[in-house]
Amino acid sequence: MSEDDRIAVVGLACRVPGAADAQALWRNLLAGVDSVCRTPAGKGTPTGPDWVPAFGRLDGLDGFDADLFGYPAAAAALLDPQHRLFLEVAWHALEDAGIDPDRDPAQIGVFAGCAPNRYLHHHLLGNAALAPATGALAEDWDDALTGSGCDYLPTRTAFALGLSGPAVAVQTACSTSLVAVCQAGQSLLDYRCDVAIAGGAAVVSTRQAGYRLRPGGLLATDGVCRPYDAAATGQVFGNGAGAVVLKRLADARVDGDHVYAVLAGWAVNNDGADRPGFTVPGVSGQAAVMAEALASVGWDAADVGYLEGHGTGTPVGDAIEVDALARVRRGARAPLLLGSVKGNLGNLDAAAGVISLIKTVYAVRTGQVPGTAHFTAAHDDIDLAAAGAEVGAETRPWTGERRAGVSSFGLGGTNAHVLVESAPATDGPDAGAPGPVVLGLSAGSPAALRELARRLTVRLADGDLAVADVAHTLAVGRRRLAYRDAVACADAGEAVAGLTALAAGDPVDGDDAVRAWRAGADLPVPPGRRVPLPGYPFRRTRHWIEARR
User: What phi and psi, each to the nearest 5 degrees, are found at residue 373?
Assistant: First the structure.
């Protein structure tokens, strides 16, 4: 694959246990935080010796900014929480990339999938309270079914966000979202779209309470996920969602995009019949998918310094994964760091792969590799030495060239492997020259506008952004919503002062451009680069139907 055939990660977003956004997730990973909740959920929670109250809970699961996305309350109540989550992370990922679909001429595709819908079966079907809760829509089950089907996740996103590229549902169990990334990358290389959103969402439990142990099952007996560890007894599940925004690297460089990292290559395959059973992973298939990804870019196994593994904490699955890795790395002398985010979050099912990718993108970008939570020593059946690999328990600096792999293996045998490397220096428009600019903000409500100003104030106070780049990003990469205000400024100090006043609801005098923006006109686009800015403050009100009794 030539340099111009590589794919740039230009935006990302997520909501996972313990973190409302990707920056919070990264801080938690660096600190080694375990975000799995192990306390009973409250009244009505099951009990008993076989009940384990461990789950990766997601705050605000019942909330949704229905007004922003154009949903009446009744329709929002029927909508699968996974669809709600993915709409929000897709919106934030596009914002992070500085792309406004309303004004960007690029064809934007969506490749995504989700877990099976529990909300439909446990909350809607057979619920006697449904009719008064949802009014006339209760009789129209087409709304409930299209709001629930996995097929409709990417097409709903395309409709809600106004995206005209391919919208393709991907369903490969726990490898879903990383397979979606591979599909998106190939679509970009084939010029089927110019920008692609890829990811997934998972609400594997609407009650978010825990699980019952089954003899010989895959779930941890103590409620702790310990990837590759001697004390591992199984996995723990959780709810979450994530998305990345991808572009051809050549286009990103010309457009002056902020590039987090580069996807150099990828591969997808299936274990086929070369394994003991349908739900058992295959060593040869996993080794083949890693080898194929490396061959696609001409890398040797020793070129990869870090591997974000599938690592679910099941002794058999982890041992098979490391055995496959050893086959690929046979003869490689360079050391390899191996890790898994599932020790921090649990297994996020259809969203697991893209969250692993987001972690790896941050590691490549920052040169820090988070430790793997709960790892002390390798399981007896796992031969790390044969793979030339080491699992780190603590965050450590990344020495050497930053090239990484990400593996995601789905129940049923569909495997995905993605290769990630550092972003090159970005060509394109120079950063805007110092001078007066206008920072134009818009939101769906006055409260959201004030909160957006507050978030931007905090971000600018860090001192690492040029106000010209901020003005450029706001001008090209944010949707035009009903409530508007702006700040004219010449430097970060003036910007912070003006935004602080906006956040407090105080009127701010402005020039002709500011007044025109407030009246609904567009701002001129100043020269500059796109930079990541704080995401839209969703106003999540409760749209939820209680589980049937």
Answer: -60, 140
* Cα–Cα separations (whole angstroms), residue 404 to 52, 128, 289, 361: 35, 52, 15, 9
Q: How far apart are CA 371 and CA 96, in angstroms?
A: 26
Closest CA relative to residue 54, chosen from 212, 162, 184: 212
| 165, amino acid identity | G
User: What letter would DSSP give residue 55?
Assistant: B
User: Kind and range of the H or E element at 251?
Assistant: helix 249-255
First to last CA, the chain: 56
For residues 41 and 210, the answer to whether their CB atoms sit within 8 Å is yes
Q: Rounded to whole angstroms, how far apart are CA atoms 329 and 335?
A: 10
At 121-177, the pLDDT tens digits run 888 887 766 655 444 444 455 666 778 889 999 999 999 999 999 999 999 999 999
Contact between 296 and 417 (Cβ < 8 Å): no
Q: Which two tokens stand for residue 413?
A: 């045998």
- Tell me the one-letter amino acid at 82: Q
Cα 103 from Cα 92, distance rounded (Å): 17
Q: Residue 491: exposed, middle, or buried by beta-carbon count in 10 A (0-12, 13-18, 19+)?
A: middle
Contact 15, 88 (CB under 8 A): yes
pTM, to two decimals? 0.95
